[in-house]
Amino acid sequence: MNQLNNEFFTENRRKLSAKLGDKGVVFIAGNALLQRSGDTNFPFRQESNFYYLTGVNEPSAFLVMDLAAKTAFLSLPIRQGIHAIFDGTQNLQGIKHQSGIDEILDIADGWKRLSKLNLKKIFSIVPLEDENILANPFPRICLKTLERDNVKCEDISKTIASMRMIKTANELGMMSRASAITYATLNEIENTLALFESEKVLEAEITKQFSLRGAAGHAYQPIIASGQNSCTLHYVNNNQRIKNDSVILLDVGAEVSNYAADISRTFTVGKPTSLELDVINYVNEVQREIIKEIMPGMTFRELAQSAHHKIATQLVRLGAIDEKYSKEDVSDFFPHGVSHFIGLDVHDVGDYELPLEENMTITVEPGIYWKEKGVGARIEDDIVITKNGAQIIGYNSISLL
Fold first, then answer.
1. In this structure, are residues 31 and 138 in contact, taking their beta carbons and an 8 Å threshold?
2. Going by DSSP bridges, is the β-strand pair 367-370/361-364 parallel, antiparallel, or unpaired?
């Protein structure tokens, strides 16, 4: 089963209400369709917080929760007339069933209904500004509409993040499915690697395998990095021929019910050199050691320090740096963090100052990138923190809780 039921989303709204109290209104907007060119759009992906509270994947929708009345409604553009002819009508009964919300209004009626509520206290999510990646405009458009009526919103991003940071059994089930699909695909790719002449063909095969195994698609742009490209951390061009006798770094993850997997493997094509094998094996060794160390109460800082020390030891072993190394020497070969939260977003929300606790989900992804040699390796798995340590998500079908 690749879908969460309405009990999950209803419970998330209940938990949020309990944290906020019985006064005020919660207003959460989803994402809108984004223009690709002309009158065509990019594939739609729902805003993760909106999905977490509703399970609805319709564009340009918003959720309103009246905390005092303990009621909620959804508002979205209900397709009629020519729009329904081209794009089809929505299954409103299905949306009610999926979300556990009985009242669905058209956009205009939704704004009218909202205006009749007590808007002295509104809780919402204020989108972050980032000049490197533009946020979907619909949430900010909605907030500006509210501001025209002199309504001030209290940002509850951190409140929802604290909820999303601890996964339920249902969430772990979706993540386990996404990871299992990714592992099965990578295993098949490893066994047939010699058949792929280019990064693009290999990407296409992974996309096909994800789809055939029941995923919605990729959780993020796949990294198919062969040869020298393996030293570029977020190489996504995926357009070069795969040369024989080289490494190929795959950083891919399936998406199931909007939940992500994020898994990296480094394979070799043809006859690998001893250096290539050493780099891959040493990174794999570091990753396994780190996972064994992880326990509730460990901090991200301690995790990073452990990874830095272990990678440094392997770099000395490789002869890449000498024993009197500096932090910068190590960073030249390992320039990224070893872990991040994962869930609805591949780089999920969470507080990196908090110690790890049971049912948090994070990645463990050490790497070595030796640019001068054209050899990059990263090994990455998603893990759930348990009371006894850490467990890799999706390796088997046993219960994760």
1. yes
2. unpaired
Summarised one tens digit per residue, pLDDT across range 366-398 is 999 999 999 999 999 999 999 999 999 996 433
How many residues are listed for the chain in this entry?
401
- φ, ψ at 135 (rounded to 5°): -75, 155
Output the pLDDT for position 398.
Answer: 32
- Which residues partner with 225 through β-bridges? 249
Q: What is the DSSP string of 230-287?
A: GGSTT-----SB--SSEEEEEEE-EEETTEE--EEEEEEESS--HHHHHHHHHHHHHH
394 and 176 Cβ atoms separated by less than 8 Å: yes
Number of H helices, E strands in the chain: 12, 19
Measured distance CA(256)–CA(216) in Å, rounded: 6
Which CATH number do you get for residue 54?
3.40.350.10
CA 172 to chain centroid: 13
DSSP code per residue over 107-166: HHHHHHHHHTS--SSEEE--PPP-TTSPPPHHHHHHHHHHHTTT--EEE-HHHHHHHHTS
CA geometry: angle 364, 369, 371, nearest 5 deg: 165
Helix (H) or strand (E) segment spanning residue 392: strand 389-392
Report which DSSP code applies to 374. T
Give the bridge partners for 241, in sequence order: 198
CA torsion sign for 126, 131, 133, 137 is positive
Last residue of a domain, one of 164, 180, 206: 164
What would you measure as the largest C-alpha separation in the chain, in angstroms? 73
| Number of domains comprising the chain | 2
Quick one: pLDDT at residue 129?
Answer: 75
* pLDDT on residue 149: 78
Identity (one letter) of the amino acid at 282? Answer: Y
Residue 401: per-residue pLDDT: 29
Closest CA to 209 of 229, 191, 225: 191
Say what the pLDDT of residue 2 is.
55
* Residue 371: both structure tokens together: 């640019």
pLDDT at 277: 96
* Rounded distance between C-alpha atoms, residue 377 and residue 248, angstroms: 8
Task: Kindly state whether residues 179 and 117 are assigned to the same domain.
Answer: no
Low-confidence ranges of the chain (pLDDT < 50): 1, 396-401
Q: Cα separation of 328 and 308, whole Å? A: 11
What is the pLDDT, as a whole number, of residue 148? 83
Among 112, 130, 164, give the residue marking a domain's end: 164
